[in-house]
Design brief:
With about 100 residues, this protein is mainly alpha-helical. It has a domain of about 60 residues. The protein has three helices and no strands. Helix 2 packs antiparallel against helix 3. The two termini are about 20 Å apart. The relative contact order is 0.13.
Length: about 100
């Protein structure tokens, strides 16, 4: 959280009272919460994937426009739907990162 940190090694003994009551699903949720709560790595990944999806949607949109203009193989509506979905999902990921970083 911005402060100096130091690791403290500990020796963990065996559990004193039977088995854990946490299910595997609860343990996975706890692990994901621990990973995403104190790290900006998931936000950076969302930024990179968002930029990649937006870039790929522009490339695909250009390809689809080329196919539509110069060939007769274009399926009506398909290219617009796919390019729109890719572009909007990329922008959504970019905004998710921006909002969580406090830029917006």
């Amino acid at each position: 959280m911005g402060f100096r940190q130091k690791a403290i090694p500990i020796n963990v003994g065996e559990r004193a009272a039977g088995e854990s009551k946490y299910s595997t699903a609860k343990m996975v949720r706890l692990a994901l919460s621990g990973i995403t709560s104190f790290s900006i790595a998931p936000l950076r990944l969302a930024l990179l994937l968002g930029g990649l999806f937006a870039f790929l949607s522009f490339l695909y949109g250009g390809y689809a426009l080329w196919i539509w203009l110069f060939t007769e193989q274009a399926v009506p509506g398909w290219t617009l739907i796919i390019a729109s979905i890719l572009f909007l999902s990329g922008i959504q990921m970019l905004f998710y990162h921006s909002i969580n970083k406090g830029w917006i």
